[in-house]
Structure of Tungsten ABC transporter substrate-binding protein:
Amino acid sequence: MKKHILMTILSLAVAFSLNAKDTDLVMATTTSTDNTGLLDDIYPVYKKATGVDIKWTAVGTGKALEMGKNCDADILFVHSPAVEKKFVDEGYGIDRTPVMYNDFILIGHKSLADKFKNKSLKETFQIIENEKIKFFSRGDKSGTNNKEIAVWKAAIGQAPEKESWYNQTGQGMISTINIAAEQKGVTLTDRGTFIKYEHGLGGKSDFEIISEGDANLKNFYSVIAVNPKNCEKADYENATEFINWITSDDGQKFIEDFKLMGKPLFTPDAKTRKES
């Protein structure tokens, strides 16, 4: 009798363990998403709502996609549409879903600001090239780096590479801004990270926005579940739950209300974006 009861308990325990929900979601995201503090604020809210821990690694979009390909993440939170689509088309990711956007801006040391007044984005980049103004690129195949290269190509026909005034930091956005500030140069950043940078300096910095508002500078973020057909251990259940939450009314309201110095860092667009 005791043996029978013991076997029943063991069977129930095994069944429970097989059906128990995993409580970890492994995310690969971008430094720009992480630098703003958005995920730090989402984490306790999401854990309270779902019981799931989000464990994220912040790298450039290119490296985040590589993590997905290598089955080192369950979900990606990234911002480089062209390479995201390729990632999905090649079967590595599924359920690519819009979440939010902000925009890219060109920032420069205040001593340079007058050079760029009333100039278009194309003219601004041409001035940088012609006057050999120190430009600092992340150079890391991130979403920001991809956008920067695209803007250079549109402005002057090609992206700089070995020019003495063109510097590739190989680092994240905040680090790149800091280097550009020290060197009194120029860099391209997402607006959210720049607001975070200014917030860290009490709203005072030697950098100014020297170009903004161009239609080509929108910065779209999406989430992508790692395809379980490619990675059998990928936690598709928790990835789907996060996608559903971040695109829900609650998740979108959270993004809308996320501000620093009274400034919104992102605009939610899960309900409005058709394609990017």
In short: The chain has two domains: 2-102+220-268, 103-217. The longest strand covers residues 93-109.
